[in-house]
Amino acid sequence: MLKEAENVIIDAIADTMDQYGVTHSIGRLYGVMYLSDSPMTLDEMSDKLGLSKPRMSTAVHSLIDIHMIQKVWRKGERKDLYEAEKDFFRSFISFFCMKWEREISVNLEAITKANEKLAELMTSEAVPDVIRDKAQKNVHQLEESIQYYNWLKKLVHTFKSKEIFAMLEL
């Protein structure tokens, strides 16, 4: 009965993580580790999930990259041990802030490059009016999107500083 209840939780975690772009098998690994009372080795993970050690290693590195698990040390243990982050608030903040910061960085860099090209089009005498007008409209749209990315930066800050919890009375 306990195993059935744990499998329900593991499947729910895996399904949820799948919605955010983490594969179902990696989500299952996190679910197993989340319910584990102690850190796990790759061998233990492989045995629990019935997957190869190389597959477990890849999954572990994916989970480390998104800060869902971390490597831990235990005296006398020669094999690498890994432990799940069990604080969902911390996991949420880490995961989404990382994604949002990447979105901000990629798009603001693209906007800067595009604005340089659009500025050239708007100032060149050789450019037809139709193109110049379209460049001006694009610049205006990009200015509006910069407002969004500045807002998103503030949102990231409220999460990282944990100000969001005070706002929501948590």
Automatic annotation (TrEMBL):
Transmembrane region(s): none
Q: Name one GO molecular function term.
A: DNA binding
Q: By its UniProt entry, which InterPro entries does this protein fall under? A: HTH-GbsR_regulator, MJ1563, WH-like_DNA-bd_sf, WH_DNA-bd_sf
Its keywords, alphabetically, are: DNA-binding, Transcription, Transcription regulation
- Tell me its family: Belongs to the GbsR family.
Protein's UniProt name: HTH-type transcriptional regulator
Which source organism does the UniProt entry give?
Paenibacillus beijingensis
Q: What is the lineage of its organism?
A: Bacteria, Bacillati, Bacillota, Bacilli, Bacillales
